[in-house]
Fold Chalcone synthase.
Amino acid sequence: MVTPGKATILALGKAFPHQLVMQEFLVDGYFKNTNCDDPELKEKLTRLCKTTTVKTRYVVMSDEILKKYPELAIEGLPTVKQRLDICNDAVTEMAIEASKTCIQKWGRPVSDITHLVYVSSSEARLPGGDLYLAKGLGLSPETRRVMLYFMGCSGGVAGLRVAKDIAENNPGSRVLLATSETTIIGFKPPSADRPYDLVGVALFGDGAGAMIVGSDPVLSIEKPLFELHTALQNFLPNTEKTIDGKLTEEGISFKLARELPQIIEDNVQGFCEKLMGIAGLTDKDYNKMFWAVHPGGPAILNRMEKRLELSPEKLNASRRALMDYGNASSNTIVYVLEYMIEESFKKKKATTQSHEDHEWGLILAFGPGVTFEGILARNLTV
């Protein structure tokens, strides 16, 4: 069942801030919080809130924070220090909670963790969040730590690629991968000069995710969920301005180019086929595989589905994660994989047929660069 020496995902965990935002109440709340009354921008955001397909999200931002830091809602003030004070604490808290859930599901003691990979685009400090997470979990001071900063939406799969390499090159190791993000780092009042900001307001959410990765699982204790066969990363030359982020005195400012879904559509097939070819799979196998895709937005999922002629249920887990949590940047792939396992168990209950055909699949994300991250994997829960 499990290939000796190949890395496997042994457990998943997630955590969220306490503030739940229902999409239908978002527009009024956001314009009230930022003391803005521009009917045109309000109408645009209302429209975007419908097209993103997001229903609920969790956010760190709250009335208490805005009362304490009213300057966050005012255009043009240098607030990066205040933002980092809030973000650094919030991401650590969420990462600790997600990791604890994950470790509990894994079933082995925290002292068995040998390596930590920490991913975030929502904090900046020395030492980094990896140290505060290790301290908060009581990890051994000898735990070998790696930190991936500012990789945006592809960070979760990039972290998984790094965790896979560590696990396979250090026999017996167990790697904790943790991701944690909050949009407070880029929270801004609406502005007619920055209409693209509204896409983020309608789409992005906060939270944390965690995975335990290791090879040669101890099957009496550990339950391997996915086997990570081969990982690829690829950047598309001359597309670095497509997802453009800058850390400024006012926090992070993001610009997403309109052509991003088109760029992904034009390049996704070649990238997937390169990965699939390793297992002898072709485009005829698309609908026999599982697809765990980071849901950057509905346009990206729709175009992928169309280009690869995927049957609608193939991107179910991605669409559900987007609907329930929004695009939570690097964390979202954890939520997608959790939904995928849930769907596998449902299928397993509903049928007694062999699921040999369904075990291969791809774990995919797209981020700044434009960078494609992909892992050819086997779903061991079917």
Observations:
- The mean pLDDT is 94.
- The chain has eleven helices and 13 strands.
